[in-house]
Amino acid sequence: MVNSLGYVECPHPTPSPNLTMCSPDGPYRVQVGYHQLKALLDMCRESGDLETGGVLVGRYNEAYDTAIVTRVWAPPGDSVRRRTSFWRGTQGLQHQLDNLWKAREYYLGEWHYHPRGGGQPSVGDKRQMVQIAESFDYNTPEPVLIVVGGSDWEVLAHVFPRYSTAIGLL
């Protein structure tokens, strides 16, 4: 919905089971369903004091202005989790993504957990997302990164448009 100032109004979490985050000026939105968010937070909790992360899969709405996360995947078996870093592996991902592509579900981006920090992406996180945005292999010119931070479970999302700066979602 566009308000009188021309900004897209984005509903923030209310009694709705979905978490919807929007860019301040409106062109980017991410919606995460209750079950997907719960699965993501459960994986963070289970990770303890080690960083972890995985892949976001989903689709776009008809207007292509909202990425709807339908699946939150755990880290592949070849991922490396440490106290202050995480490298997402690739084992089996391409096959799974190819199968979902046929069902019109796509790679949307990444999720990551910082047990000792906030929900802001690290320098390494940003570098990885820029590489994904600029890689035609991913076919995702505007990947999403959701970061969960520390014991207060701060959940922040950013979009990384190809050849542009990251945009924080509210």
Name the descriptors.
single chain, 3 helices, two-stranded antiparallel sheet, alpha+beta
Structure description:
The structure is a single chain. By secondary structure, the protein is of the alpha+beta class. Helices cover 21% and strands 31% of the residues. The protein has helices at 34-47, 93-102, 123-134; strands at 19-22, 29-32, 52-60, 66-72, 80-81, 86-87, 106-114, 144-149, 154-159, 167-169. The strands form two sheets. It has an eight-stranded mixed beta sheet with strand order 1-2-4-3-7-8-9-10. A two-stranded antiparallel sheet has the order 5-6. The chain is globular, with a radius of gyration of 15 Å. The relative contact order is 0.17. The model is unreliable at 1-15 (pLDDT under 50).
Task: List strands and helices in order, with pairings.
Elements: E1 19-22, E2 29-32, H1 34-47, E3 52-60, E4 66-72, E5 80-81, E6 86-87, H2 93-102, E7 106-114, H3 123-134, E8 144-149, E9 154-159, E10 167-169
Parallel strand pairs: 2-4, 7-8
Antiparallel strand pairs: 1-2, 3-4, 3-7, 5-6, 8-9, 9-10
